[in-house]
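lol so apparently i was supposed to do this last week
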Amino acid sequence: MDGSLTFLGTGTSMGVPTLGCRCAICTSADPHDKRLRPSVLVRWNEAATGIERAVVIDTGPDFREQALRAGLRRVDAVLFTHGHADHILGVDDLRPLSFIAARESGPIPLYASPETIAILEKVYDYTFSPQATYINRARLTLEPLEESTWVHGVDFLRIPVTHGEQTISGFRFGRAAYLTDVSAIPEASFALLEGVEVLVLSALRHAPHPSHATLEQALGWAQRIGARQTWFTHIAHDLGHAETNRTLPENMRLAHDGLSVPVTL
Ligand SMILES: [Zn+2]
Ligand SMILES: [Zn+2]
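anyway here it is w/ zinc ion bound
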């Protein structure tokens, strides 16, 4: 099945420009150097109904702006990679979309690991607590993330990756995969990535970081996985879009906000 993958945001946790910074990238006039917090949108037309389905991976603090820019009018499910602020702080902005979903078919399911569910329950206590009474709370349900999550005809396979001290979730859907906040890829996860044609991998900067891969590490994994096209995301202000892309192999590029690529689901 044909679908599309849209980069809602390709920046690191602080976003680019980074507040208070006057570096060449943060003051760049190139729109490709403006990066909101990391998130992607997967869309496809469901064969049985012809309805356009939409899954968002992570809803960070820029979700509202990203959804407006992408023309997102409905969401069928959200998958979470992990519970850090740059990946979850947009949950409240799902409210209006959740009212639409609730009228159509029911609350929007959020799929997350037990650790991430615990964080979401704490941060959004007024939404998820059984005692929550706020009338306009989001119509969302927290669902345990299994090895595979079936959403209207598309299977999202969980790909465990290492993020500093934690194991978090990446996702494979058809011939595409999205792996963000990666500091290492367990051997068993490489096997789950065989045959991937479009790979998205996080690459923070050149200098080492305890919980994020450098561009050089990410390049090495990308070469090993061997996708037809690799896109890098979760990018800090150390990497300029145009100048970095000039140094990369033909089939590897920094992604940018708003970029949409076709994927086979
Ligand atoms: Zn992150
Ligand atoms: Zn993180």
